[in-house]
Amino acid sequence: MKPQPLYSTLICAALAAITALPAQAQDNHIYRCPNNEYTNQIKGRTDCKRVEGGNVTIVRGGMPPAPKSSGGGSASSAAQRVDTPEQRARDTDAKAILESELSKAQAHQTELEADYHNGQPDKQGDEARNYQKYLDRVAGMKAAIDRNQADIDGIKRELARYGQH
After folding, report:
1. Which of 47, 80, 95, 129 is the most buried (most CB within 10 A)?
2. Is 55 helix (H, G, I), strand (E, B) or coil?
3. Long-range contacts made by residues 68-74, C-beta under 8 angstroms, separation at least 24?
4. pLDDT in tens, 139-155
5. Alpha carbon of 106 to those of 6, 103, 142, 152: distances in Å?
6. Angle at Cα 74 formed by Cα 72 and Cα 75, nearest 5°?
């Protein structure tokens, strides 16, 4: 065997040391302690469990900034409260909008149910030859009817908050 020069041996040793560094960094384990506390230093605690698999990302949070008040501080409370006549006007407007939306949704429901024909809609185009296409369209129609009915129910719940329906 031919003797190797010193610099090639040093390069090999340096490469081995560099590749070993990430392996040493991966020896740090993450532990989950009570109250969803995550740490890599348990310092003799026995109530923490090692987290296996997956990565843990920790985002440090702080307190949200305090709202800035100008003057006496009563301006912020006055902005949140609305006097009774103005609130009644807002409620009246909201009821009118909800009633309008309810009538539109009910009209749309009537159209959807008329097209659906109790699960037997008319076949269109090549659906006579491709029955699966027909079944897919019927299923889509049924889903649309169910979604629209859920919308109607939601609008009725909102109106009930105002003492309607």
Report:
1. 95
2. coil
3. none
4. 999 999 999 999 999 99
5. 88, 5, 16, 7
6. 95
How far apart CA 36 and CA 30 sit, in angstroms, is 12
The per-residue pLDDT for 164 is 58
Task: Please state the φ and ψ torsions of residue 63, each to the nearest 5 degrees.
Answer: -75, 140
Bridge partner residues of 49 (DSSP): 32
* Whole-number Å distance between alpha carbons of 122 and 124: 6
Among residues 102, 101, 81, the alpha carbon closest in space to that of 90 is found at 81
* Whole-number Å distance between alpha carbons of 8 and 61: 49
Strand partners, 50: 31
Angle ∠(115,132,117) on CA atoms, nearest 5: 20
Q: Taking the domains of the chain in order of start, what are their residue ranges?
A: 6-50, 82-161
Question: How many residues appear in the chain?
Answer: 165
- Tokens 């384990």 label which residue? 29
The model's pTM = 0.50
- pLDDT beneath 50: ranges in the chain: 22-27
- Separation of alpha carbons 126 and 134, rounded Å: 9
